[in-house]
Amino acid sequence: MTEIKPMTDLPVLLPVRPPSVPALRFRAWHGLALVAAVLLFAPAAGAQTGSEELSIVGVIIKWMPLLLTGFGFNLLISVLSMALGTIVGLGLGLLQLSEFHWLSRCAWVLTQFFRNAPWLVLLFFAMYLIPYQFRIGDVTVPFPDWVKAVIGFALPVMANVAEIVRGAVQSISSGQWEAADSLAFTRRQTMWMIILPQCVKRMLPPWMNLYSLVTMATVLASVVGINEMLTLTAQVHNAEGGRTDLLAPLYAFALLCFFIYCYPINLWTVRLERRFNVKS
């Protein structure tokens, strides 16, 4: 039905329209402004105490190389966890699509177990159940805590990548399989030469989103004593005498580092979803 338009311009005779509510959208500069406000107002709060200690900005500049070193360690753990989890998860996802029913069921159970387990519990599992060294013949190979942390984070990555692979493969039209079968392609050739190349663009956005989540989750390593950024932030706070006015600015600096690194990944993920027309 076509809408009947009123034949008058008088406001009192026009139909009542509900008030429009402006959409609230957060942008990058909102987060930067919030952190900048914390850094700017914190020195004012410290000045009210009348102390002659180093200013908050001075403390952050003084310890910035150490804190950025810790942040780089967070990135190293996230990259290695993502690489290890992606390699194993790719195989696990393909096993879920195996023609052997028992093999696909075992892969499915393993995927669901690690996908639905808390990341912190898996981290504790890796830290305290994996030995700190291995002995191969007469050679003792040390196994440091940060390597065990990488394995702990790689377990949920593996499960999530397996689900990404399975979903991407099953989203390919069955006509692709039938066409490859008519051309005498084996199942392995069809998977590696036809199906998986088409799955890459479908897997890339969720894979990047997962990497962003892993990067932010690496601060959990501070609970088990890994010298990453959050652990070093606490040590810096203690080294400055536990000043209460330093608490918020120091952790705001850590927040700013993760935001500057992860937010462009989020924007790039959204851009790829639009480019590849990926529907969530």
| Structural category | mainly alpha
The SSE order reads HHHHEEHHHHH
Shape: flat
Q: Biggest sheet: strands side by side, in what order? A: 1-2
Stretches where pLDDT falls below 50 for ≥5 residues? none
Find the count of extended strands (DSSP E, 2+ residues): 2
Helix content: over 70%
Number of distinct helices: 9
Radius of gyration: 26 Å
Average residue-wise pLDDT: 84
From the N-terminal CA to the C-terminal CA, the straight-line distance is 33 Å
Give the DSSP E fraction (strand runs of 2 or more residues): under 5%
Q: Quick one: biggest sheet?
A: 2 strands, antiparallel
Secondary-structure topology with pairs:
Elements: H1 28-48, H2 56-96, H3 101-115, H4 119-129, E1 133-136, E2 139-142, H5 145-170, H6 174-182, H7 187-217, H8 229-239, H9 244-276
Antiparallel strand pairs: 1-2
Helix pairs in contact: 1-9, 2-3, 2-5, 2-8, 2-9, 3-5, 4-5, 5-7, 6-7, 7-9, 8-9
Description:
There is one protein chain. The chain is an all-alpha fold and 280 residues long. The protein is 71% helix and 3% strand. It has a two-stranded antiparallel sheet with strand order 1-2. Helix 2 packs parallel to helix 9 and helix 8 packs antiparallel against helix 9. The mean pLDDT is 84.
